[in-house]
Structure formats: C-alpha cells, structure tokens
Specification:
Layout: E1 13-14, E2 17-20, H1 24-34, E3 40-43, H2 48-51, E4 60-64, H3 65-73, H4 77-80, E5 85-87, E6 89-94, E7 101-103, E8 113-117, H5 118-130, E9 135-138, E10 143-149, E11 152-157, E12 162-165, E13 167-170, H6 177-181, E14 186-202, E15 209-215, E16 218-225, E17 239-248, H7 252-256, H8 260-271, E18 278-280, E19 285-294, E20 298-299, E21 302-304, E22 310-311, H9 319-339, H10 347-375, H11 380-395, H12 397-408
Parallel strand pairs: 1-12, 2-3, 2-13, 3-9, 6-15, 13-21
Antiparallel strand pairs: 4-8, 5-8, 6-7, 10-11, 11-12, 14-17, 14-18, 14-19, 15-16, 16-17, 19-22, 20-21
Helix pairs in contact: 1-5, 1-9, 9-10
Length: 423
Amino acid sequence: MPAAHPASPARNAHADVLITGGGLIGQTLAVALAAHGLSSIVVDPASPVTQLAPDFDGRASAIASASMAMLGAIGLGDALDGHGCPIERIWVSDGLQPGELDFAPPAGDGPLGVMFENRRLRLALSAMIAATPLIDLRAPARSASVQHDAAGARITLADGSIVTAPLLAVCEGRNSPTREAAGISSAHWGYRHGAMVGAIAHERPHDNTAYEIFYPDGPFAILPLPDLPAGDMSAPWPHRSGFVWSTGEDDAPIFARLGPRGFKAEMLKRMGHILGDIQEIAPRGLYPLSFQHAARITATRMVLVGDAAHGIHPIAGQGFNLGLRDVATLVEVLVDGARLGLDLGDAQLLERYERWRGLDNLSVAAATDGLTRLFGLPGRAASAARRFGLAGVQKSRLAKRFFMAEARGQSGDQPKLLAGLTV
C-alpha cells in the first residue's frame, strides 16, 4: 500500500500530467500513463488507509471485456487474476413476466465481462502505484488552489507544496469543484430514484449470470461474484452476488432501514426466488440517481475524465466502463502527442480527445436515460410493449450480437488499449 506523503516539509514537483481525484478512474489513468512512460502526480483528499479497508463494503463493478483487456495491457492482469467472477450470461426481464431476453455468447468467445469487488480493484491499483516511480501519489492532500492557463497547470497544496504539469486531468467525480471553477456547465436532472447497493449469499449457484429485472419504480440487478473461500462459514452457502436495487426516492430510505427479516422478504419478492434462499452479507449503501453530462470535456490545459465528464444511470452497468474508455482514449492521444514532440497540454491534442470521446459519451448517456424512462412507464400496455420488444430481440441474432458487443465495450472507434494493445 502506498504510504501517504507527510504534510511537511513542502515538496514541489513537476510531472507530465497532474491528476485531481485518486479514485478508481484517477488511479487507473496514472497507471496507464506510467505503462507508456509518462509521469503523473495524483492529488486526492482521501486517506489510502480508508480506501484499502479489508472488509467487503458491498460495492462491486462489472468490467466489460474490452476494459479487462486494457487492465491487462497496463499490467494489472496478474493482480486481478482469480479475484473476479466472469459474466457469461445476461438475463433481462420486465417484472419477471414472460418474454425475457437472454444473452449468452457462443462457446469460445469469452465472457461479456468480469465482476470485481471494488476493494480488489483498489488493492491492485495501490500495489502497482507503490511499485511505480513515475507515479507520485499525494494522499491525503488537499488543494489550496488549482490553476490551468497558457503557462501550464499548477496546484498549490494545503501544505504549501506546488506541483506542476503541462496538463490537468480532472477525475474528481460528479461533484467536481475543478470543473465548476472552470465554468463548464452540465445538463443535469434527477431520476427521483435511489439505488441500494450491497451483497447477498444465496442457496443456488448463479452460474455466472447477471440478472436485470425491470420494475416501474426502478431496475433491480443481481450481479455474480466469486464464491466465498472454502472454509468461510460467514454465510450458510458459498454462492455470492451483488445487487443494485433502484426504487423511488421516497421508498429507498425506508427499504434501506429495514431489518434483516423485512429486507430479505422484499428482496425475495423482487428476485422471484431465482437463486433460492438468501442472506445479506455486506452493509447496504444508498445513493441518489441522476443524469449529468458536461457541455464540454476540455478547457485550457485541462480534460475531464470519468464521472467528472458524465454521470449516468446504472441501468446497464456502463458508468465505470465509460470512464475507462475515457482513460484509454486520453492515454493514446497523449502518447501520440509525446511521440510527435508536442506539449501535452496542446489544444490540438485536447480537441482530439474531445472529438473522440464526444459521440460515445453522448450515445451511451442517451441510451441509458432512454432505457430508464422506457422501463419506468407504468401500466399493462407499456409492459406488454416492452415484453414484445424483448422477445423480438431474443429472436434476432443480429440484434443480440449488437447488444453483446455493447456489453463487451467493443463497439465504435476503439483506442488500442481496449483491444489489449499498448499504444
């Protein structure tokens, strides 16, 4: 685990890229840059000790197969190997009514993605950062001021340190203060939904299947996780899954406060007993759901990456993968620029990043927003129409192939890293 740098004495430094925000996206960007010989300074207010707590907090992420190829290409494959659960099938239903959609790639095509506990991703990234001289992690550290102008990017830290670079990459999440200070506006609206996130042990094996069940008050997803280790008696069965349960913003806090018996009863209603009996095995988290899309993702010597650029509904589990595609694109743009001898904050490079990411970000955001609204329409007629549509896709090889490519993250103009190739 990388040690937090001491608050004093002040340590001034220069790097190829400054990164504000040391979450999963910010750290992945730093590791990907280092894999191509570019240095970075990562500034994050959170303590590494807190981020690497050993207990499972219930949070997990579906990493699309293209994103997995990138993680392997930047050196994280060995650290993650054996810690994830492959997603080999996606089962979609409208309220458990007939007319479901079942995605399963042909034998030999590999999984659609892999589910990881977020803590496993953090541990892998942390170990890589600790072993990489090209990454200077300043955490916990707070920014007293952030500047980015024609002269370069500059952060003055609370301890008096000054760190500089030709480019500032903002990975601060949806509520990015740096984006706001730069005057970049965002389209934003709430869904009047809350999402509960957690994990369960269950009686029947999940067979590496991700379930997405749509209800008028929000989608309900069950996501496969690796079985508990042999000898772990913390639950009556070894089989585990994560869940993302979306419901109305008024109901979400009520469900989140239910005791174990009441919560189990409500969960089983939503799941339809598809995995048999269940037991909750991780703390529940409750998050408001909203849509956010920045009007632009670049400014003078600054780029937005991940949720600082786009925040989408978790309906298809694409939010984190969208951020990883930002990382892959930005790294390719910067490496190409460095080879040409360009300043890494050059406006031409930033324009290329904006143009390359613009259509993908907008199309995924629009698609997830549209699905959220479509499956939220109440009434029998709307449900019948949705089930008719699902049945139509189920019968169409071409349509299923398209949706599987989307789930894998293999559509559109892909950066080399998403094909598992270094730039």
